[in-house]
Specification:
single chain, 913 residues, six-stranded mixed sheet, 14 helices, 13% helix, 36% strand, globular
Length: 913
């Protein structure tokens, strides 16, 4: 369905039936747009050009009825066959862009040039009737990879082009001079991958080789490691990579892959597979096959190929998941898994079990839903299929949906299915087709996405995942709806309550089978039994997140009042009860005289309102809603508060007043119960931590109030009294609250996490320890109206009764910035040479400058002002360095909070490190 908006009629105009059928029967175009200033939509299809009048919704067949200046455009003007690249060794890659401009630019197109030191990529613009481009955009700062789309402004002065990296380059169309580059996706391009020797880690590289080294099967060095067991990234690679001895040699010519070994050679070529980019070959001892090659392509295809004695190549398995260049392929040491990397930002793990099994498949060659060729004597020939036919449906589903289902639930060979086909001439027919023996189709066991800001998420296709603090914001669910409705997209973080299941990920890695992994997970109180597959529509609908809409005020509302009433509608598509609605202003909990949220029930939705206080200038209002299983995307507006002029006394000039800082530092080195191991420096962590913050008085803060609880002072009741005292001081929106806990962290047998206080008894945790959720409630709810930093220097799982009941990182859902000293599977270290734990040691380094020797934080904090993000970055790098990679910090950063300054660096006499 294609629809257009009519400005004159102020309504949506749909295509008429004959035009819609024309589009439905064709594979989509290499051009879709408006080449003139008139409302005529052009789509270039394989069978010819289709022009639609967007006012009437009908296809244009008589071009003589068009305005005179537009007639030439849709006839002779669309002929781009005369265009030639600017260099002999260049070739086109993009579709042609058109524009009606009699005196200026007419065509734009992109391509690549072959050079001895590697291909270069360019975009050119041509004037009407000219063969050579009059301006070319290329060079070291231009596109790093194939341009995919180009457009030029209506005045012909500015061009924009997009490439396979997702980058958009804006440049002068008349000169080719760069104006600006918009970076691509937040994920990292992965240029290589390799298992380590015991199969517990993946070495990978995020930087490509230089042009002279960049080549087939050789795209980038291995510089980092991802630990699959601990789920942490390390900025180093041990020299223990799994080696795959092979004497295969490879040669690529276009889409043809030639494989040689000794005196024998094999050739593999498929148009749908595309240009091969990397290969690896080995003997697969589990299946007894000696000659197997795994090949990846530029289009993201990945296949296992059997090299037969007679010189034939048989596709054993196709692996579906990557969306762009496959850059590395590595079998695990036990040959049970395959790892592959791609510039799409992912490393995928695939099962190699039953590699020589077969599943039912179609035997014709296709691209999209178009039949390209039908082999002689094949089942498809018997069924009457012909090249050029369109596949409308397979069974009861569309062809695309059925192909997806065949990957998830393959049918055995010999299964009969019904096809709905359409001839090129427009007639339809419905043959019955018997699936033929063919390669198995495989989806990843797990996929790992790595981002440029060192976040990661490891997920299974069914939806279960493990993640770094904010990694699950980078993946999500694409839900197709009715053909007349746009698709929906949900971030995985919206389903964190339901799908964040690290233990299921553990079991998938252990059992290599997602079905068994879900069944094996037990049902302790802390973990609900997981569902099967959340890609099934009913499953996803059951947990569909709420939808929030701000009714009033409107975005950009200007007011002279110091408070405003916010009205929001909240709908729950799943029918689940709305359990919480949160109003935030500038990333903080909304402050009002009535802190409760008032709900006004209607038949279809719930309406919530709250009056919030504003600060002078722009105020960002954010509202989120949640159910027991999911949460909404934030609804956001901006309200501008322009107060009346302050009187001459300066009353109301709050911007001149520094904020207050409130510090609660808790450190427990000595424990009353003999079964709890004493620590050496936790008490010193708390004392020195508070001392450094006290130095900020008169610098970053007008006043600093610190309360320190150590050892026998840090009882459960003592900590609760200190938290109550903190609330009694009533921190304001401009103030900052900082809390440190340094000591033991412990799980009970039900998966609940506690902070071990002075009197904690391991067998009586509920009565003698502090549930971490109490601090969570303090920083997430009670102090939501001010900025909060929580530092937790405790072992996340070292003292757990049983890891089987640890449901994941206990700090994941806190509504404050949380700095955790270690990953939830690691032990937090302390050492005599530091006289502290690793986190507080790193904290002192970043806040205090050294008088002599190297300053390890100088390169991070260059202006002397430490921000919350600076702490995050420094902890990430320094804690891993101090502990030789045994400990890795983790920061939880709420999406509504932006970076802010926390301290001014001050001198110290710290020893050199």
């Amino acid at each position: 369905m294609i629809r257009s908006w009519s400005h004159q009629q102020k309504q949506i105009a749909s295509l008429k039936r004959e035009a819609e059928e024309q589009f439905a029967s064709e594979e989509t175009s290499d051009y879709f747009g408006f080449p003139t200033a008139y409302p005529y939509l052009l789509t270039r299809l394989k069978t010819g050009n289709v022009v639609i009048d967007c006012i009437s919704g009908r296809r244009v067949t008589d071009f003589s009825l068009l305005p005179e200046e537009a007639q030439w455009v849709f006839t002779d003007g669309l002929d781009d066959s005369h265009l030639a690249p600017h260099q002999p060794d260049s070739a086109f890659e993009t579709a042609t862009w058109f524009q009606l401009d009699p005196s200026g630019v007419w065509f734009a197109k992109g391509g690549f040039s072959h050079k001895t030191d590697g291909d270069s990529y360019w975009v050119g613009v041509w004037r009407k009737n000219e063969t050579s481009p009059f301006a070319v955009y290329e060079g070291p700062h231009a596109h790093r990879w194939s341009p995919q789309m180009v457009t030029v402004s209506r005045d012909g002065k500015t061009a924009a082009s997009a490439d396979r990296f997702g980058e958009i380059h804006v440049w002068e169309a008349l000169t080719g001079r760069q104006i600006r580059v918009f970076p691509g996706a937040r994920h990292s391009e992965i240029w290589n991958v390799q298992w380590n020797a015991d199969g517990s880690r993946l070495h990978f590289g995020r930087e490509p080789y230089a042009a002279g080294q960049f080549n087939f099967n050789h795209y980038g060095p291995l510089k980092e490691t991802y630990d699959l067991a601990q789920r942490v990234m390390e900025s180093q690679v041990q020299s223990d990579g799994a080696k795959t001895p092979t004497n295969f040699k490879y040669q690529v010519d276009g889409n043809r892959l030639t494989i040689r070994r000794n005196e024998k050679s094999w050739r593999f070529e498929e148009d749908a597979f595309g240009r091969p980019t990397c290969c690896t070959g080995f003997s697969h001892r589990l299946s007894g096959m000696e000659d197997i090659v795994f090949a990846g392509s530029q289009s993201g295809q990945l296949a296992a190929l059997e090299l037969r004695e007679n010189g034939d190549v048989r596709v054993l398995r196709r692996f579906h998941g990557h969306h762009s260049n496959v850059t590395g392929i590595s079998p695990s040491p036990d040959h049970e898994l395959l790892a592959s990397s791609s510039i799409d930002g992912t490393i995928r793990l695939w099962s190699l079990a039953d590699l020589n099994s077969q599943s039912g498949d179609i035997d014709f060659i296709f691209r999209g839903n178009q039949v390209l060729s039908v082999p002689s004597g094949s089942e498809s020939e018997r069924a009457g299929l012909s090249a050029g036919d369109t596949i409308m449906s397979l069974g009861t589903m569309s062809f695309y949906e059925s192909r997806e289902m065949l990957i998830r639930n393959p049918f055995p060979p010999g299964t009969s299915i019904d096809l709905e086909m359409k001839r090129a001439i427009g007639t339809t027919y419905s043959p019955r087709f018997m699936l033929q023996p063919g390669p198995t189709h495989m989806e990843p066991l797990l996929s790992l996405l790595l981002t440029k800001d060192n976040e990661w998420v490891l997920w299974s296709p069914r939806g279960y995942y493990d993640t770094s603090g904010n990694g699950d914001r980078y993946i999500g669910w694409h839900e197709n709806r009715e053909r007349s409705d746009s698709a929906m997209f949900y971030k995985a973080s919206q389903f964190r309550k339901e799908l964040y299941r690290p233990l299921i990920v553990d079991k998938i890695l252990e059992l290599r089978n997602p079905d068994e992994a879900v069944l094996v997970i037990g049902t302790p109180v802390a973990i609900d039994r997981p569902q099967s597959d959340y890609r099934e529509s009913p499953r996803l609908q059951q947990i569909s997140p709420p939808v929030v809409r701000i009714v009033s005020p409107v975005d950009g509302f200007l007011t002279s009042a110091e408070s405003v009433n916010i009205l929001a509608e909240v709908d729950s598509p799943s029918g689940a009860q709305i359990t919480n609605v949160e109003f935030q202003i500038n990333g903080l909990g909304a402050v009002s005289k009535a802190l409760s949220v008032e709900a006004l029930n209607t038949e279809s939705t719930k309406v919530f309102q709250q009056r919030v206080q504003l600060k002078p200038g722009p105020n960002t209002i954010t509202i989120t809603a949640s159910t027991l299983k999911s949460e909404s995307q934030p609804a956001v507006i901006q309200v501008v508060y322009a107060p009346a002029a302050a009187n001459d006394s300066g009353e109301g000039r709050k911007s001149d007043v520094k904020s207050m800082l409130y510090v609660l530092a808790i450190g427990v080195s000595r424990y009353q119960h003999p079964a709890v191991r004493n620590l050496s420096y936790a008490h010193k962590d708390a004392e020195d931590f508070a001392g450094v913050w006290k130095q900020q008085q008169g610098l970053q803060y007008s006043n600093v109030e610190c309360e320190v609880l150590i050892d026998e002072q840090a009882t459960t009741d003592g900590i609760r009294e200190a938290m109550d005292s903190l609330l009694d001081k009533q921190p304001g929106p401009e103030d900052i609250v900082v809390i440190l806990f340094s000591g033991h962290g412990v799980y009970d047998e039900r998966g609940n996490y506690y902070l071990a206080t002075y009197e904690t008894e391991p067998d009586k945790l509920r009565r003698t320890a502090l549930p971490h959720t109490e601090i969570g409630h303090l920083v997430t709810r009670d102090l939501a109206h001010c900025r909060r930093l929580l530092f937790v220097d405790a072992c996340h799982s070292a003292a757990a009764v049983s890891d089987n009941y640890a449901s994941g990182d206990p700090w994941m859902d806190f509504g404050a910035v949380v700095y955790a000293s270690s990953h939830w599977r690691e032990v937090s270290e302390e050492r005599p040479e530091w006289q502290h734990g690793a986190m507080v040691s790193a904290f002192l380094e970043v806040i205090q400058t050294v008088s002599s020797g190297d300053d390890p934080a100088a390169s991070i904090v260059q202006d002397g002002i430490v921000t919350a993000k600076d702490l995050d970055f420094y902890f990430h790098r320094r804690i891993a360095s101090l502990t030789s990679g045994r400990q890795h910090s983790a920061t939880k950063w709420p999406i509504t909070i932006s970076d802010f300054p926390v301290a001014v660096r001050v001198p110290t006499n710290l020893p050199d490190r």
